[in-house]
Design goal:
The complex is a heterodimer of chains A (333) and B (512). Chain A has a single domain, classed as ABC transporter involved in vitamin B12 uptake, BtuC, CATH 1.10.3470. Chain A is 78% helix and 2% strand. In chain A, the strands form 2 sheets. A two-stranded antiparallel ribbon of chain A has the order 1-4. Chain A has a two-stranded antiparallel sheet with strand order 2-3. In chain A, helix 3 packs across helix 13 and helix 4 runs antiparallel to helix 5. Chain B is an alpha/beta fold. Chain B folds into 3 domains: 236 residues, Rossmann fold; 183 residues, Rossmann fold (3-Layer(aba) Sandwich), CATH 3.40.50; 73 residues, no CATH class. Chain B is built from 19 helices and 20 strands. In chain B, the strands form 4 sheets. A 6-stranded mixed beta sheet of chain B has the order 6-7-8-3-9-10, sandwiched between helices. In chain B, strands 16-17-18-13-19-20 form a 6-stranded mixed beta sheet, with helices on both faces. In chain B, strands 2-1-4-5 form a 4-stranded antiparallel beta sheet, with helices on one face. The longest helix of chain B has 18 residues. Chain B is globular, with a radius of gyration of 24 Å. The two termini of chain B are 40 Å apart. The mean pLDDT of chain B is 87. The chains are: A mainly alpha (333), B alpha/beta (512). The interface between A and B is large, with 32 and 40 residues.
Chain lengths: 333, 512
């Protein structure tokens, strides 16, 4: 009996196939300009900051929520780190001490931001979309208050070297992203807590009635999302050597889009990490193609937006198809 | 003779391998009350949905007022005067009764802007037609169940109903309210309307119906004039056999200390001053109508509805059950009233549903789940509860009601609870699964589990419970111990207690 689980794997194979086909098509169309070592490396540098945000969004989707504040968390957490790095906060530290203190400050703030989202959503039962829309503005507001909207530049090289470091020709930040994705994948598919997250996402009420502590899970999941966003924020500032409110606003929509393409069901309870990783690669290739074709940033936004709408439409159609297919199978057996 | 409102000719309908309707033919005359009787899943509801245009029959034809249809849409059916009142009534809770009654009529007339005078006129006209007095200003949610029923009937009448289906209209009503509703139904009949009444309750069926059609396993067993049947023969035709369930008697020693002792438990608006004790090996029945406070009490004992005052002691120690997690830690399980939304993860397989309560036992912290052990537990549950499914990975959403309910029982019994609270465990499941669930519950109790068995069916209460609490109007109004239950008139006594409480409410002047 082919059941739902294997059908979902089926979708994943389609996605992997699609990615490979696109890679082949791009090889023919763009040739060197897409697959030069330089372009590959620059793709590997760009993927992590946005890939980590997408993983965060995936976690929110899995438990049937959404997090619209991830980019705000990333930026504001980066700003706090930058403030310590430049000696505005905690002056008197030096060398690696300042880097450690800065990263600790930034990531702690990011987790705190995430947990505050979790508190609103899981403990106060606020609607995730409204709560994180509110905290998005709130967290950006904090960043704005701290910087007055100006960029903080002149970060010490002890910190920025991390963003450009390479291991055997592969950017360290890319290795970090792959490691995080692998860890999340194992966590979600193998541990009891991962299973509980899926159950919670599928039916929060039944999860409560099954003595699953949904409040606690929701609270901490948003905390982890905050951590992922914070990591992304650190990668950004170490790469561009400045921290500023409003960086990477387009990532918010792209993270949503990647989750939908990656087969993470917005209603919760369905999807795999591998799908998201695949979709991140797919998006990065498209994004590079747009750059090679010299699309304006406005045109890019337009394309991402329309893609999201088209994907949701496809999702709807395929769900309808699947219902029919299942019915037919059941009648046969 | 074309006095027939409805002629169904050899209707068949098949779902996912189940023949829900098998060549059912049925005639309904104008101005009669016709009862459809049958077990859950016998095809009554499918029949109603086919006539009202929700399902299209695979074979057969439907003749309404002389017009022949191979299949109907809901719009067609309504145009022919078919109206259905479902059990949930489908009223808008925060709109007044007047609006609820009149809005469909106005929509039918193509009115785009609401004229409040017209709303009132339509609503008044309908209530006067059946001679009842309800507060049309009140919102549906402030109105009693009986009042809502009346509103739903008026809504149907306002749309020129000629054939009115009522699905289990009395399930949530007290006896007095039932009497009044049945009077209204007779009034409808005198006005020339045909009413098709679907009910489980045999005495009601006999009181009002002219004709009875019995369904079993998707087939029509036969049409009977109600005068020619009695309760016994009706039950026999419905089930196809003489159903006798074994009666449960507690075997554990009598003097054991109570497992759970509840004292003076109250929650504003839910239940008041509830006290009782339950020992290991007890199946304590809690009977009461929908809305008597029984479900709210069950939720409180499972940590989902914190009480205002009162004391709960579990195994002799005072317990503050503040969450389901805490309840489970103590050894309390709850089979919820609504298994679809509260008990099951419908898209997930049987395996993941059964182990949803056991994950802490299958993996510690960040260690991987023991997949082999998990599968074993699931297979054991399927075997023990005789869940009929292609495999342990079958999504539970595709199972029948009875098998799905067994999954919920399996998921909690695998956690080895000391106290198992079962809220309406046999609602909407077939008679075979029912018997198997009774057997399971009794074997749990023989294995020294305590069971709190919540139901509104007297028959299952009598066969499964060795002690009984009767709940009405948010209070426990009587407690019957083992001796009382052995008395010959125990069943009658419980029925009277439930009915009696309704009468008292009547005297206090509760209007519908």
């Amino acid at each position: 009996m082919s059941n739902l689980a294997s059908r979902r794997d089926h979708d994943l194979y389609i996605l992997i196939g699609l990615t490979l086909v696109l890679a082949a098509v791009f090889a023919v169309v763009f040739g060197e300009s897409m697959y030069s070592a330089r372009n590959l490396r620059s793709m590997a540098y760009q993927m992590p900051e946005f890939g980590l945000l997408a993983l965060g969004m995936m976690l929110a989707f899995l438990i049937g929520g959404i997090d619209l504040s991830i980019v705000a968390v990333a930026n504001t957490s980066g700003i706090m780190t930058a403030l310590v790095l430049t000696g505005v906060w905690l002056p008197g530290l030096s060398g690696y001490g300042v880097v450690a203190a800065a990263v600790a400050t930034g990531l702690t703030a990011a987790v705190a931001f995430g947990l505050f989202n979790g508190f609103l959503i899981a403990k106060l039962s606020a609607s995730p979309i409204i709560a994180t829309l509110g905290t998005m503005t709130f967290y950006s507001g904090i960043g704005m208050a701290l910087t007055g909207g100006k960029g903080i530049t002149g970060l010490p090289s002890a910190f920025t070297s991390f963003g450009t470091a390479e291991m055997l020709g592969v950017p360290v930040i890319f290795v970090c992203f792959v490691a995080v994705a692998a860890a999340l994948s194992a966590f979600l598919s193998r541990t009891a807590l991962g299973r509980r997250m899926y159950l919670y996402g599928e039916n929060p009420l039944a999860a409560r009635f099954s003595a699953i502590d949904v409040e606690r899970i929701g609270f901490w999941v948003y905390g982890v999302i905050g951590l992922l966003a914070g990591m992304s924020g650190h990668i950004v500032i170490s790469r561009v050597n400045s921290a500023k409110v409003g960086y990477g606003d387009a990532y918010q929509l792209q993270a949503l889009l990647v989750c939908v393409i990656g087969g993470i069901h917005p209603q919760g309870g369905r999807g795999k990490t591998l799908g998201v990783v695949c979709a991140v690669i797919l998006m990065q290739m498209l994004s590079s193609a747009f750059t090679i074709l010299r699309f304006s940033p406005y045109a890019k936004k337009l394309i991402w937006g329309s893609m999201l709408i088209v994907m949701l439409g496809l999702e709807y159609l395929s769900a309808k198809q699947n219902v029919r297919r299942e019915l037919r199978q059941k009648i046969v057996h | 003779m074309s006095n027939l409102v409805l002629q169904a000719k050899a209707l068949s309908k098949k779902f996912v391998g189940v023949q829900a309707l098998d060549k059912v033919s049925l005639d309904i005359e104008a101005g009669t009350i016709h009862c459809l009787a049958g077990e859950n899943g016998s095809g009554k509801s499918t029949f109603v949905k086919t006539i009202s245009g929700i399902y299209q029959p695979d074979e057969g034809e439907i003749v309404l007022n002389g017009n022949v249809y191979a299949a109907l849409t809901p719009a067609h059916a309504m145009r022919e005067g078919v109206q259905v009142i479902y059990q949930d009534l489908s009223l808008f809770p925060y709109m007044s009764l007047a609006e609820n009654i009149a809005l469909n009529r106005l929509r039918l007339d193509g009115v785009k802007i609401v004229d409040w005078k017209e709303v009132w006129r339509v609503a008044k006209e309908q209530t006067e037609k059946i001679g009842v007095d309800v507060d049309l200003n009140a919102t549906a949610i402030e109105t009693s169940m009986a009042g809502r029923q009346i509103a739903a009937i008026c809504r149907a009448l306002s749309q020129d109903a000629r054939l009115l289906f009522m699905d289990e209209p009395t399930a949530a009503l007290t006896r007095q309210e039932v009497d009044r509703l049945l009077k209204v139904v007779c009034e409808l009949k005198n006005n020339g309307l045909s009413v098709v009444f679907i009910s489980h309750k045999l005495d009601e069926i006999f009181r009002i119906s002219d004709n009875i059609t019995i369904f079993r396993d998707g087939k029509k067993v036969g049409d009977f004039e109600s005068a020619r049947l009695d309760e016994k023969s009706l039950a026999y035709h419905m089930t196809g056999r003489d159903v006798r369930y074994p009666r449960y008697r507690r075997e554990a020693e009598a003097a054991a200390a109570p497992l759970l002792a509840v004292k003076g438990l109250s929650k504003q608006g839910h239940y008041h001053d509830v006290s009782f004790e339950i020992r290991r090996g007890d199946i304590l029945g809690l009977i009461g109508l929908l809305g008597s406070g029984r479900t709210e009490l069950a939720m409180s004992l499972f940590g989902l509805n914190p009480p205002d005052t009162g004391v709960v002691a579990f195994e002799g120690k005072t317990a503050r059950i503040s969450s389901p997690v805490e309840a489970k830690r103590l050894g309390i399980a709850l089979l919820p009233e609504d298994r679809g939304s509260q008990g099951l993860f419908r898209e997930r397989g049987i395996r993941e549903n059964i182990t949803s309560t056991l994950l802490d036992r299958l993996a510690v912290g960040l260690r991987a789940i023991d997949a082999h052990r998990e599968r074993e537990i699931a297979e054991e549950g399927v075997k023990k509860l005789r869940i009929r499914a292609p495999g342990v990975e079958t999504p539970v959403g595709t199972l029948s009601g009875g098998n799905a309910q067994k999954v919920v029982v399996a998921k909690w019994s695998a956690a080895n609870p000391k106290l198992f609270i079962m809220d309406s465990p046999t609602v909407g499941i077939d008679i075979g699964s029912k018997a198997e669930i009774y057997e399971m519950v009794q074997s749990f109790a023989k294995g020294h589990m305590a069971v709190l068995f919540i139901t509104d069916e007297l028959e299952e209460l009598m066969c499964n419970c060795n002690r009984v609490l009767v709940m009405a109007n948010h209070r426990i109004i009587a407690a019957l111990d083992e001796g009382d239950m052995e008395q010959p008139g125990a069943e009658r006594r419980i029925a009277d207690l439930i009915g009696g409480s309704a009468r008292k409410e009547e005297e206090r002047g509760v209007r519908i």
